[in-house]
Amino acid sequence: MYDSIKTYLDQHNIQLIAVSKNRTLEEILSLYHKGQHAFGENKVQELLAKRSQLPPDIEWHLIGHLQSNKVKQIIPYISMIQSVDSEELLITINKYSIKYKIVTKVLLQVHIASEETKFGLSSEELFSLIDHVSVHPLSNIQICGLMGMATNTQDMTVVHNEFKHLHDLFDEIREKCSFLQPHFQHLSMGMSSDYKEAIEEGANMVRIGSALF
Ligand SMILES: *Cc1c(COP(=O)(O)O)cnc(C)c1O
Asked: Which end of the chain is less packed: N or C, by CB atoms within 10 Å?
């Protein structure tokens, strides 16, 4: 499945993060040898264990909830943290990025689904976080865009509406918050079950796992 999905994404100019949670090193390497170098994991321990045994030019994205007390372990090894869901977490990421003398790219995760359980900022929290950052800049953070997950439902109208909502927030921030440029460019939405809908609604980065393997 990797080849056909990758061809489709390339035609639409969409960046693929291959979600490798629960996959073996061999499975990951088989995609790596096809040229896939960006992988996503949702747990810190699993990401660190895999990365130490895989080629060093793999770009790792953390896509799952990150606890503040695990930030220091992950910072030196990560290309992007897509799951920033609180101001406190962002400040902690900045603190350790300063300590390690690196700049960390992040996406802000927005809660767009109807399920209670999915993490993410409400729109109010999103704008309040951005306001805060505009007044108190975080020297070692690049806010590169937004990430979201739609409701897990067969009703694609719901999914379309949720992705459209995230795209509207993305456009609004791009219009109003020029201080976030040139970095604020990524709209990460869509997984195996809904990546086509996400692309129709303006995603430029998708996180696909099960459909690839
Ligand atoms: C697991 C996961 C994905 C990929 O899900 P699939 O259904 O396997 O494509 C995408 N994003 C997040 C945040 C995930 O945890």
From this structure: N
CA of 209 to the centre of ligand 1 (A): 6
Nearest atom of ligand 1 to the alpha carbon of 210: 8
pTM: 0.96
Residue 186: its H or E element: strand 186-189
Q: What is the whole-number distance in angstroms between the Cα of residue 64 and the centre of ligand 1? A: 9
For residue 117, pLDDT over 90 is answered with no
d(CA 70, CA 92): 10
| Ligand 1 first shell, C-beta below 6 A | 19, 21, 42, 63-64, 149, 191-193, 207-211
Sign of the Cα pseudo-torsion (104, 149, 58, 174, in order): negative
Whether the link from the prior residue into 182 is cis, omega within 30° of 0, is yes
Q: At residue 115, does pLDDT exceed 90?
A: no
What distance in Å separates the CA atoms of residue 210 and residue 171, rounded to the nearest whole number? 30
Give residue 63's domain range: 2-208
Report the separation in Å between the CA atom of 207 and the middle of ligand 1, taken as the mean of its atom positions.
6
Count how many residues are written for the chain: 213
- The tens digit of pLDDT for each residue in 139-186 reads 999 999 999 999 999 999 999 999 999 999 999 999 999 999 999 999
| Inside any domain, residue 87 | yes
For a mutational test of ligand 1's pocket, the pick from 19, 39, 62, i.e. the residue with the most ligand atoms closer than 8 A to its C-beta, is 19
83 in any annotated domain: yes
What's the mean per-residue pLDDT of the chain? 97
